[in-house]
Design brief:
There is one protein chain. This protein has a 7-stranded parallel β-sheet, sandwiched between helices. The protein has a single domain, classed as NAD(P)-binding Rossmann-like Domain (Rossmann fold), CATH 3.40.50.720. Helices cover about 40% and strands about 15% of the residues. Strand 6, helix 6 and strand 7 form a beta-alpha-beta unit. The protein is α/β, with parallel strands linked by helices. Helix 1 crosses helix 6. It contains 6 helices and 7 strands; from the N terminus they run E-H-E-H-E-H-E-H-E-H-E-H-E.
Length: about 230
Amino acid sequence: MKKLNGSNSLLAGVSTGLGHALAYDLSWSGSTVLITARNGEKLKKIAESAKTKYFPCDLNRESDLLLEHFSREIGEIDNLVVLIGGYVQDSILDMKGLDEMLESHVRTTLRFVEKCVKKMHPGSNIVLVSSTQTMKTSSSSGLSYSIAKTALNKATEVMASSLIPSEIRVNAVAPSSMMDEFVPDRDYSRLRKIGDLQTPPEDVASVIKWLLSPESEWVNGAVIPVDGGYRLR
């Protein structure tokens, strides 16, 4: 795979799993990476491990400060990855998670992308994180989560179409359940086999890195399942 030397990457909603794995992978590949999330202490540890920059931020209240900091300290945004997580179990009998899931996975994500796009240039890339729950019969206890992620899938397509004149690509990955922690340089292939529910974050990070690279430049508006085939079982 072609390296990402000279690129600038902004990762929002970084966690100790996928966010850490992706930050580590992109940094090793030559990209200048800034990671952000609300928990500054956890963010600092990830940044030290992955050799990246970091900026604690609540995207709903401080996104303008974040983008000003990125522009001042790093420059233009070449790659944007929004990794906002969160899961609430609910059903049609009690849709207690509907507002929270729509806010996290749809409203917050799209508002932030809207601001970032104005600072991006032709050839830039955006990757969002969906779920294979949108591609199979979902759990009866995951109604609001499935609704929010399905909306994100359609938003990926519509944004990709809207940004064709700007030459900015938009794609998404759709993992199943992911392991919580990333451990640098481990042999993660030994932690799973085809069809397993649990996915090491490294598997998802590698697909995101490919989507940000020139090798995937003819992929646009796609939602790519990264689950080892679990959705097919």
